[in-house]
Each structure stands twice: as structure tokens, then as C-alpha cells.
Amino acid sequence: MKRTFSFLLLYGMLVLFGGLGALLLIFGEKAPHASLAENRMLAGFPAFSWDTVKDGSFMLGLEDYLSDAVPEREVFVASADGLMDSLSLPKEQPSAVDAEAELAAQLQAFARENQPPEEKPQEMAAFRTTPSPSPEPTATPEPTPDATPVPEDATPAPEAVTPSPEPTATPAPEKDLSGIQACTFTMTLANGQVNKVYTFSPENVKRAIRMLNAYRAALPEDGHVFFAQPPFPGLAFQLQDGTCIGWGGDLEDTINEYSNDGVYMVSVQKVLEQHLLDGEYLYFKTDHHWTPRAACYTLNAILSAHGIDPKPYDNYTFHVNRTFYGSSSLGNPNIRNTMRPDTLEVLVPDTPVKGYRIYWDRHEVEAPLINDNFGNYMVFLGGTLGPWRRFETGVDCERSCLLIGDSFSNCFVPFLVPYYGTVHSCDVRPGYYDEVNRKWSISDYIRENGIDDVYIVYSTANGVNTVSIMQNLLKYL
Questions:
Q1: 347, 437, 449: which is closest to 63 by C-alpha?
Q2: What is the pLDDT along the chain (477 residues), one digit of tens a residue?
Q3: CA distance 80 to 106
Q4: What are the backbone dihedrals phi and psi of residue 255, each rounded to the nearest 5 degrees, phi first?
Q5: Alpha helices in 146-201 (DSSP H)
Q6: Residues in contact with 55: Cβ distance below 8 Å, sequence separation at least 6, in sequence order
Q7: CA distances (Å), 98 to each of 200, 211, 402, 462, in order?
């Protein structure tokens, strides 16, 4: 009797899901279309041919289509994101499994056999367009004005030397990480009480440091790796409504202390704290992202810390949309009735930028930096698209950078334009970076495209505490 019931239950579920799949195939949207909640294009019905059936790509495409065509998908996604935002929790909790041995083995694959030179002080090498005049491991001369790329309204930087097809950086010995303790992200309440919002275990901090060091070793001698972890809006609003009088933590200082030279993590909390306390508009009210102003402040803090006089946010040109309702309104339609729309400022580049989406078979299609077909956050890069994108900025500078990040990084990318001749981007989250079909690694991409600097920008929901993201960043390198 029990087996009969189990069989009938299983049979009924198969019939139910089979019927649902058939309805999706008959009545579902067949063409790719935008998802406001996920800031990406949802998969369309795959093209059928014997070749796509034989190589398996048709079935993979069909799986993506059926997943993306679930009825009311955006409502479910937006509701889940809204719940996570309100709780101020990361979407994935740290794993209790210690993957130190596996990560160390992966890191060794990128290490070199020769002895490293004497350590040099960290300097403004990441933005020099000419190589250091001496290979000696002595103090490097201060950068001169004509050796530093500047915004497009100033004198162009001199012609750069073509990057070597192989990384030229010599891996530094790993620092002793045994002294690393748990790090925290804290909020200071109006009454002076300090609350811990996030705790980053020693294992997770070490994992992040080893990942960042591996990226540094994959870059040229004058390359840098920059890391930023923006907090979510729910935390930022507490600084504006008087609930909290400050936020901070020791994660950034710890990573900077224990990482190799050329690695730098900016404290987004320190950068934005006073601006938020002053009431500046740095996070959308109806969307789960930060504003372009907050992204620009963060990049400018990185540039300033490395000797660059960055272009102020108010010196850029913008298109302004004052009727923007974002992802939060999808899960709560009453937002449109109770809240004013957000103001969306969309950067207008000073130079003609050409953008391309690059597939695993190296096929390219145009993918603009600013997609004016969208009146929402997807205006930046057209949303998150995988696996790779390249933007030719038109700036007279041969240096290139790669930005790896989640959707928070999409409005960060345009502000890199004045400082690089080419800007590349990707996202190692599942659904954007296809592990099954990938044809080359991130280190391959870095070598083939002459990448000089890497920016890693993941929100706290996908940052140091998200073990899968940190592992993928190293696994795919």
C-alpha cells in the first residue's frame, strides 16, 4: 500500500510537471526578454538543428529556457531579494567546510619556480603607461605627470608599450596567514551600541586573500588587483534615517595587511559613510542597487589612494530619468502608490565607446556600454550578460582592465572609461559564466587581451562570505 501511494505520488508529480513544461512550450514567451528583477536577459527558446542536438547545446538551451520561463518568476525573485535586503543577510551563508587545502593546491598552479625579488613598496604602478626604467628591486621613482593617464579633458598619456602576452609579475611568497582572526562588519546605533552585522571567519578571509594574490600573480609587473564589497541598501538607509551614526569593520585592513603588494581592498563603508550621514543620494529607494554616484565615489577613492587625481562625479555628463521604479517595486506593487520614483543618472561618455559581448566560441555581438532601450538599472551595460564583454573606450591609453563583479559593478564600469583604452568585464556567478561550456580560463583571457589591472566588485551578498563565489574566482582563473 505504501509503495502504491509513493508510486502514485511520483507519477502525479511527473504528470504535473510534464504538463507545466508543455504549457510553457506552447504559450511561453519564445524570444529572449529582459528581467528587471535579475537585471539580465532571460533565455529564449533555443534554435533547433541536428547539430545543436548532437553537441548537446539544444538541451542546455532548453533547460535555460524552461527555468527562465517559469510563470511569475520576477515576482518570486524580487520577493526573495526584498526579504534578503530587509534582513540585511547575505544570500549564501559561509560554508563550514574548510577548503584551504584545495585552494592552496589551485594557487600553486599559478606560482612560479624562481625566487621572488626583494619586496618593493606599493606604488602608483597600476596606471603607468611606460615600464619602470629599472628592473632592480630598489625603490621605484615617484610617478611623473606625463606617466600617468589622465581624464580625456587633459593632455593624453604617451604611447604605451605593447603588453607582453605572458604575465611578467613574479609571485611573492605568501605571508604567514596564521595570525588572521575573524573580521566583522559593524553598525553603530544612535545610542552608541555597536552591532555586528556580518562576521567573516578566518577561513573565508584567508580564502579571499589567496584568491586576490593569485590574480595579482597573473598580471604584469605593474599590475594591481582592486577589491570592493559594497553593502546593501538596507544598511545604508540606517545611516540616513538616524537609526545608526556610523558603520565600519576590519575586513579591509586585514586583507590589505596580509595580501601581497599590488592588492588593495577599498573600504566602501569609509568612503560612503559621511556622504550618507549628510543625506546624499547613494542608494535607490525602489531598487536593491547603489547609485552611480556611490560607484564613482568608490572608484575615485581607489584612484586617489594610488596617486591619481580622479575626475569628480559632478564633472561628468548625465541623462536623468526621474521616473525610475526598480526591482523592489516588482515584488511590492504598492511601492508605486506610496513612494516617489527614484532618480536615475546615466553617464554620457565623453568618448565614443564601442561594446561587444564575447561568447565561448569567440563570436562577438555588439553590446553597448549604455543601453538607452532600458529605462531602469539595465541601462548600464544592458544588464548582466555572460560570459565576457569588451568596451573600447576611445581613450588614448593602451592600458586595459578587467572588472569581475555582480550587478553592482554594472554602473561602476562606465567610470573606468577615462582611465583605460579597453575595459573588459565578466561575472563568475552561475548563469553568467558557464563552467560546462567554457573554452578558456580567466588567466587565458588576461594574457590574450593584455589585461593590466583587475577590479573585483561584488556586493556583500556575493562577497567574502559567499564561499562559492570566492572559490569560482580562483577555480576559473
A1: 437
A2: 656 766 677 777 777 777 766 766 666 665 544 454 444 445 566 666 675 565 555 665 666 666 666 665 555 554 554 444 444 444 443 333 333 443 344 344 333 333 333 333 333 333 433 333 333 433 433 433 333 343 334 434 333 333 334 444 455 677 889 999 999 999 999 999 999 999 999 999 999 999 999 999 999 999 999 999 999 999 999 999 999 999 999 999 999 999 999 999 999 999 999 999 999 999 999 999 999 999 999 999 999 999 999 999 999 999 999 999 998 888 788 888 899 999 999 999 999 999 999 999 999 999 999 998 898 999 999 999 999 999 999 999 989 999 999 999 999 999 999 999 999 999 999 889 988 889 999 999 999 999 999 999 999 989 999 999 999 999 999
A3: 34
A4: -65, -40
A5: none
A6: none
A7: 13, 15, 29, 18
Please give the grid coordinates belonging to residue 45: 527558446
Cell matching residue 7: 508510486
C-alpha cell recorded at residue 209: 586573500
Task: Map grid coordinates 567554457 to a residue.
Answer: 438
Burial of 131 (0-12, 13-18, 19+ CB in 10 A): middle
Helix (H, G, I), strand (E, B) or coil at 183: strand
Q: Which residues, in sequence order, are bridge partners of residue 403? A: 425, 455
Map grid coordinates 571567519 to a residue: 201
Which set of grid coordinates corresponds to residue 111? 606560482
Q: Output the nine-digit C-alpha cell for 404.
A: 569581475
Report residue 282 CA to chain centroid gap. 18
Nearest Cα neighbor of 427 from 456, 393, 466 is 456
Distance CA 414, CA 392 (A): 11
Q: How many residues does the chain have?
A: 477
pTM of the model: 0.70
Nearest to 410 by CA among 425, 400, 420, 421: 425
Answer yes or no: are the C-beta atoms of 419 and 406 closer than 8 Å.
Answer: no
Contact 130, 310 (CB under 8 A): no
User: Assign residue 328 a region: left if phi > 0, alpha if psi is -120 to 50, beta otherwise?
Assistant: alpha
DSSP state of 69: T
Of 362, 330, 312, nearest to 153 by C-alpha is 312
Q: Which of 146, 38, 77 lies closest to 378, judged by CA?
A: 38
Contact in structure between 126 and 451 (CB atoms under 8 Å): no
- Cell representation of residue 179: 595570525
Written as one letter, the residue type at 327 is S
